[in-house]
Design goal:
301 residues, alpha+beta, Phosphorylase Kinase, domain 1, Aminoglycoside 3'-phosphotransferase, Chain: A, domain 2, 2 domains, 5-stranded antiparallel sheet, 3-stranded antiparallel sheet, 10 strands, 50% helix
Length: 301
């Protein structure tokens, strides 16, 4: 974003200009504005048509957008997360429509996940064989070896539920579509007199669980996501096929790789194992005793 371009486009007495990521904050002395370039007009128009206006006003529209600047009040992150999930649920509820199912799209989702499960099973088999040849394991190798059964349980769960999900989705003629914010984080929720979602650059139309998945990957380890999911579903209950796919995606183990830093590896491995542990606790209440879910106990050193 070039400051000279902004000065030419907007006839404003610019006292101060501050660059924040992809945004530019301009201060006229009397008020502040945000200048951004990449905004999806179709999404904004659709939000307006559906009565969802929990985003800053676009004051002037051109190649660059002049947007209302909102000063957010300080609040605990837990409350910000609840405000965020309530807004997301409202966004999904207000923008829902049903679309004829694209069988090729869902077949590709199925195949991509199935291939990933197959790859991760082989990857961890090979990795474990190498680790077991060591006379003395490094702390990171020991951490992974002690918890490897947890990875296999998660992969087994994903493989089993993927088959069930695919059989279920093949019976559907239509699926729910919503506006996805597609970039959810605690940095993108503002609270003043109302709550506002900002940073709509990546917004698009798709199934609702992708917003939940990205938020879980960012916040699931540090917060009680069972409560977050409960608040979401009070406003916008997930359909069975949606919940199944969401659980599969969050339960799929990451590919952990060793680096030259044992300390950094231990930090990363421990963080991912903790998230897997919390994922199992989140998922397990949704399945009956005769459905085997990932075990919810782990071993750490």
């Amino acid at each position: 974003m070039k400051i000279n371009e902004i000065k030419k486009i907007f006839d404003l007495p610019l006292r101060k200009i501050e660059i924040r990521g992809k945004s530019c904050i301009v201060d006229t002395g009397e008020c502040k504005y945000v200048v951004k370039k990449n905004i999806n007009h179709d999404i904004i128009n659709y939000l307006n048509s559906r009565g969802f206006k929990y985003y800053p006003n676009i004051i002037e529209d051109s190649d660059y957008k002049l947007i209302e600047y909102i000063e957010s009040i300080n609040m605990p992150d837990e409350q910000k997360l609840l405000d965020l999930i309530n807004l997301v649920a409202l966004l999904h509820a207000k923008t829902t429509f049903f679309k004829e199912i694209d069988n090729d799209k869902y077949k590709k989702i199925y195949e991509d996940i199935a291939n990933n499960i197959y790859y991760l099973n082989n990857y961890y088999d090979d990795l474990l064989k190498v680790i077991e040849t060591k006379v003395f394991m490094s702390p990171s190798e020991y951490l992974l070896a002690r918890n490897i059964s947890f990875f296999y349980e998660a992969l087994s769960f994903c493989e089993r539920q993927l088959q069930e999900w695919y059989e279920l989705i093949k019976t559907k003629e239509k699926v729910r579509q919503v506006v996805l914010h597609n970039n959810l984080s605690l940095e993108h929720i503002l609270r003043n007199n109302n709550a506002y979602l900002i940073s709509w650059d990546k917004s698009k139309i798709d199934i609702p669980i992708f917003d939940l998945y990205k938020l879980y990957r960012r916040c699931g380890r540090n917060y009680d996501f069972s409560e977050i999911l409960h608040h979401y579903e009070k406003i916008y209950p997930l359909l069975k096929e949606e919940r199944e796919l969401f659980f599969i995606l969050i339960a799929l183990p990451p590919k952990l790789e060793f680096t030259s830093s044992v300390f950094d590896d231990c930090v990363v491995f421990n963080r991912e194992i903790e998230l897997m542990f919390k994922t199992a606790k989140l998922i397990s209440p949704y399945y009956t005793n005769n459905t085997k879910e990932p075990q919810n106990q782990k071993e750490k050193n």
